[in-house]
């Protein structure tokens, strides 16, 4: 799969996803980098996987209900990997001052609303990164959605960071009537099941075995956890090593 020279390595990959094949050829550095520096690559692969899922939905006679201007899913508890957390923190720093302050104050407002809502949700969210119980995380997510807290990046019903949006936002699609999305009842909301979830691979790659975390965190905790996100990034590794590890999980 790789052709290595001292500075770079070329990756020529063919990976079977669902009933299609993703092909790409790209060069990666042999220098050690942070995992989040490869996010454009992971975003690109996520978009390719989502395209495959959409094609399969259409072939099955259904259609994707998500459309411009619908932002019901932007009040969900958006899970992000710690690597994406680091990249989003950097992104916020590059925003013009007025916009940066607005985004920061929206995060603070949502965190205050969470605390005021009581029911222990604030504390549960703080510990979510260490919780491996998927059902419990799902229940926390539904309780969070009930609070109707729009994502701090949502602007005029659109994602203000669309090219940089988290992998889980890219992966979220429904085929059921969008009217049901205002109350995400699994009995009526039909999500598109992706053949592969790049977001989950990134959670695993972002997790640090030493402290047993899951590698993911709720987006809303981004600013409150800024310091720990930076500290808890996985150790830098050669880009080619990250890519090979990723492709192994994607193809496995
Ligand atoms: S990051 Fe963008 S797409 Fe994702 S929840 Fe926020 S506004 Fe919506």
Automatic annotation (TrEMBL):
Entry GO MF terms: methyltransferase activity
Keywords, ordered alphabetically: Cell projection, Cilium, Flagellum, Methyltransferase, Transferase
Alphabetical GO biological process terms: methylation
Name the record gives this protein: Flagellin N-methylase
Native species: Candidatus Thiodiazotropha endolucinida
